[in-house]
Specification:
6-stranded mixed sheet; single chain; binds manganese (II) ion; 2 domains; Creatine Amidinohydrolase, Chain A, domain 1; Creatine Amidinohydrolase; 407 residues; elongated
């Protein structure tokens, strides 16, 4: 099923890159002392989801264990690790601490300190502006800062995260590649009489089997009129011939998300009305992708997507199709499936965005969305998910060529 996809063979960012990111944060905030706290094991939801690392903390540290923080200041670059906790370790395994052998080499930090040293480290820089993430400041930092004023570091870290490094682009492409295989597996599984959850299960199997850790978001497998609900997640319905199936599904692999949507006919053939609407949405996506390049704003691309839909047709009640695009036509994607992006700032090379126009027409019981992941390059843009069939003809040919699968 996954022939050609090497397992876990991706080039993750290394310690040198994480250090360079902290250096960039330092340069962006001269004279500031920045505290960025990672996720903790005690957080609500962990019992259901397992531990999830904080994206801003991971971006700056590469550290995957709970309860840690980084402190980045004028002459400070410290990883703070929690005290050993044998009781907790019985449940979730041994963790590194400041006294672990070779801790500097293991973490890539020249200096690793115990979390309890935070107050002393902050006090050593009495003149520094204090910035924190998450914001408002976590309890540990409020205590350590002893009443000093603190502001948010989140915007500043998000600015850095918007432009992806070559290693990050490779990570996102890997997540996209695995997710495209998941979509193809879904198309093989899909048939009249199959339930939405069966298609969702098929997709998850592909990326968990490939070593990916999470759904990037709950799979949206929406047949018929369920596709009108933008974030439909029940996935309980039985699909039938003559309906469309909208799949907005992506994996998170090595911390990086994919976000891909295709809408395909359950019985293998678009009706002429479905094809008309599908072509309108695809034309909208293509126009926005064709206009994507450095210097253009996301708002402009959204406008192009809407304008194209407006000219592409009407609903049966006579309204132009742009009236049925009820969300912004894209967002950034990276460590988070909705990664930081500006809508009014010019796009830059290295940014990765989705372009995802759709139409959701209640009076026709029809929802259609097409979503691709677009890398902004120095000369324009590259569709990272172009390898997954997009046109109505390509989709029908793929479906016609399916081997007879277990239903
Ligand atoms: Mn999306």
């Amino acid at each position: 099923m996954l022939a050609g996809l090497p397992l876990l063979a991706w080039a993750a960012p290394d310690a040198v890159e994480f250090r360079a990111r902290r250096e960039a944060l330092r340069r962006a905030n001269p004279g500031a002392l920045v505290y960025v706290q990672g996720g903790t094991e005690g957080e609500r939801g962990n019992i259901r989801t397992g531990f999830l690392q904080d994206s801003n903390f991971y971006y700056l540290s590469g550290w995957m264990e709970p309860g840690a923080a980084v402190l980045v200041g004028p002459d400070t670059d410290v990883l703070l690790l929690p005290e050993p906790d044998p009781a907790r370790d019985r449940y979730t395994g041994a963790k590194q601490h400041a006294g672990s052998p070779d801790i500097a080499a293991r973490t890539g930090f020249a200096r690793v300190a115990a979390a309890k040293e935070l107050a002393a480290l902050a006090a050593a820089q009495p003149g520094a502006r204090l910035l924190v993430s998450p914001s408002p400041a976590p309890e540990a930092f409020r205590v350590a800062a002893a009443g000093r004023e603190t502001a948010s570091a989140v915007e500043s870290i998000h600015q850095l995260r918007m432009v992806k490094s070559p290693a990050e682009i490779e990570m996102v492409q890997r997540s996209a590649d695995v997710s495209m295989e998941a979509h193809k597996a879904a198309w093989r599984r899909m048939a009249p009489g199959v339930h939405e959850y069966q298609v969702a299960a098929t997709m998850g199997f592909v990326y968990f089997d490939a070593g990916c850790e999470h759904h990037a978001y709950p799979p949206i497998v929406a047949s018929g009129k369920n596709a009108i609900v933008l974030h439909y997640q029940r996935n309980k319905r039985r699909m039938d011939a003559g309906e469309l199936l909208l799949m907005d599904v992506g994996a998170e692999c090595g911390m990086y998300a994919a976000d891909i949507t295709r809408t395909v006919p359950v019985n293998g053939h678009f009706t002429s009305r479905q094809r008309e609407l599908y072509n309108a949405v695809l034309a909208s996506a293509d126009a926005a992708i064709a206009a994507a390049k450095p210097g253009v704003t996301f708002e402009k691309l959204n406008g192009i997507a809407r304008e194209t839909l407006k000219k592409a047709g009407t609903s049966k009640s006579g309204k132009t199709l742009d009236n049925y695009l009820t969300h912004f036509a894209g967002h950034g994607v990276g460590l988070d499936v909705h990664d930081p992006t500006g809508r009014t700032a010019p796009l830059e090379p290295g940014m990765i965005i989705t372009i995802e126009p759709g139409v959701y027409i209640p009076e026709e019981d029809t929802g259609i969305r097409v979503e691709d992941m677009i890398l902004i390059t120095p000369g324009g843009a590259r569709n990272m998910t172009a390898a997954l069939p997009r046109t109505a003809g390509e989709i029908e040919r793929f479906l016609a060529a399916r081997p007879k699968a277990r239903r």
